Amino acid sequence: MTKRASDVTASPPSSPRRRSKYTLAPLVLIAANVVLFSLFFVWPAVIGLVYSFTNYTGVGAFQFVGLDNYNNLIGDSTFYDALIRTLLYTVLVVPLNFVLSLLIANLLVSDQAKGKSIARVLFFIPWLISPIVVGVLWRWLFGENFGLINYIIEKLGGHAIAWQSDADLSLGVVVMAGAWGGTAFSMLLFIAAIKNVPTSYYEAASLDGAGPWRQFISITLPSIAPTSFIVILLNTINSMKEYPLFVSLNNGGPGTSNNLLVQYIYQTGFNRGQIGYASAASFVLMLILMAVAVIQLIVNRRVENR
Known about the structure:
The protein has 306 residues and is mainly alpha-helical. It has 13 helices and no strands.
């Protein structure tokens, strides 16, 4: 049977105004982000790159010196000390943050855990606090003459510990403070990832006799591998750029023994007025961060392709 032409309802063509509306709206939003990105990232990066080849001091004119700033960095022992301390801090705080956040996330998604809603709020509080405030809190806890920890130790009959005068102990305090302050965000990422793991996997593993630890190793960890990669990458980059926590907790002390790269760059550029030299150090740090990100991406892809 042939349908009549009147029975076929043709869909009305979309109007040019509607098409332009759906085309212009995304472009406007994208353009706003491009402008902000260019204004606050690309332009300062270009200026910094130009300054890194000059002897600019922050005022007056400057002269191009070529690669002299980068050549001087190669022989700068203070730069290497700050770089080594930065790498050491990163190597210590990233695994500690990873373990703590993953442990807390597993506890908060467990069916046996009680008061999970309150616990999530409490564990998320460090993320709401400024890094400067975190540093002040931990300095109050581990101060040598006024700290709560030393007060408790002395009340128990012990001797006060040189938390701030000893370089290694001072770095250890900052590592604990940094891991504590960054655990909340990583914990939320892990909670979301663990909840997305199908429960049928765990049910099948239980039927096969696998215990909680075996389920965690064989099911949870492989299933949350992409999230683990993101957590490690973000924490690595944030740790290598850490500044306010060190300044508020021990100001890179004792002396300059715990100065990180960002502190070195700040002191070189603003305290000594060597903007060009500090810009060169900044781009070296940027190259290191890019190399870390590329290496982690390569490793993650190889793991996923296995």
